[in-house]
Amino acid sequence: MKLLIGNKCYSSWSLRAWLLMRVKSIAFSEKLVLLDEPGFKQTVFAEAPGSGGTVPTLIDGDLAVWETLAIIEYLHETHPDAGIWPSDPAARAQARAACSEMHAGFTALRGACPMNLGKRYAARDRGADVARDVERITGIWRQARERFGGAGEGPFLYGAFSAADAMYAPVVTRLDTYGIAIDPVSQDYMRAVLALPAYREWLAAALDEPWIVAHDEVDESALVNLRQS
Ligand SMILES: N[C@@H](CCC(=O)N[C@@H](CS)C(=O)NCC(=O)O)C(=O)O
To answer: Within 13 A of 198's CA, how many CA atoms are on the CB side?
Structure first.
């Protein structure tokens, strides 16, 4: 399989699919297509004709699968023993609901705090809509940890790492790099995600990237530039 991804510093959707495949030890090659470059769509369509022209797109032989939720389901069907979804039906149903909510929502947080692994921002009030998103997201996390996290299967939302953790990973980075205050249960969960070797691998590559996209300069409250270059 080949996964088309965007810049690791900024591409939150790419991080989701990539992290899931890496944590679940699913073999794949990756091709990075530069976001904000005029040739972006052409490159994606050349690799994946008829796709949505976005990253991530998964290519398996002559099949292209775009849209992150569809990629997750395809991985689940092709790797039924990988634990893409929790094995318990109740946990699986709620994990799927949490993923759908993530895919469709939290636009205030996503708009105000674009994923940028290269900077750490000064904590500040980012408005009522962002606060509402953060409260809902951390509510989902606490509920998941309380009901499904106690079986000793792991520190992730539904016990062992699943698609739900991959879907929320970019939110974890946003709450971290934008200094957004959250409750202790959610902090513990964030620490577990940020410590994943697969995430550290992605982050190291992100911090090595030389490309800066336009939105990187929008928020001037950056305290620390984390890039090595
Ligand atoms: N709904 C899509 C969103 C994918 C998406 O918007 N990816 C961004 C990069 S993070 C992208 O490809 N942007 C370039 C474009 O839309 O032309 C999914 O679930 O995968």
So the answer is: 18
**1 in Cβ contact with 47 (< 8 Å):** no
pLDDT tens sequence across 3-46: 999 999 999 999 999 999 999 999 999 999 999 999 999 999 99
- What distance in angstroms lies between residue 54's CA and the mean position of ligand 1's atoms? 4
Probe target for ligand 1 pocket from 4, 54, 99, with the most ligand atoms within 8 Å of CB: 54
Vertex 188: Cα angle to 193 and 146 (nearest 5): 105
55, 74, 107, 117, best to mutate for ligand 1 pocket (most atoms within 8 Å of CB): 55
Q: How far apart are CA 119 and CA 198, in angstroms?
A: 20
Residue-wise pLDDT tens digits, 136-174: 999 999 999 999 986 667 899 999 999 999 999 999 999
Residue 219 scores a pLDDT above 80 = no
Nearest ligand 1 atom, CA 11: 10
In this structure, the number of other CB atoms found within 10 A of the CB of residue 1 comes to: 18
The token duo for 94 is 């709620």
CB 164 within 8 A of CB 98: yes
pLDDT bracket for residue 223 (50, 70, 90): confident
Residues with CB under 6 A from ligand 1: 6, 11-14, 35, 40, 54-56, 67-68, 103
CA-nearest of 119, 142, 136, 147 to 219 is 119
